[in-house]
Amino acid sequence: MIDNKNHLKIEIIVDPAMVQSIPPALSSRINALPANKAATTGRGGSNNRRGGPGRGRGGKRVFQKPKSVEQLDAEMADYFEPK
Where is this region: Disordered (predicted)? Predict the structure, then answer.
């Protein structure tokens, strides 16, 4: 589909002599994977660290009330005071 509206038909013409044989079906190519030896013995711990408890969402943001003019003046006086 082009632009979710128009269909585009594509035909591929191939020389039959050049075509390979059809591969076997996927079900015949898939074999059962051998079981993990550690999983079958039931011994040892897991190194997989996933699945544990989460870290949480964090705390609620605490808003400080604004400083008064007197508090700001006191901070300025302390800052500019010679040492």
Answer: 34-67
Place of tokens 């005071």: 81
Q: Name 1's Cβ contacts closer than 8 Å, sequence gap at least 6.
A: 7, 8
pLDDT in tens, 47-77: 666 666 777 788 888 888 999 999 999 999 9
> Model pTM?
0.27
Distances (CA, A) of 43 to 33, 38, 49, 61: 21, 7, 17, 46
Q: Which candidate, 36, 58, 34, places its Cα nearest to that of 48?
A: 36
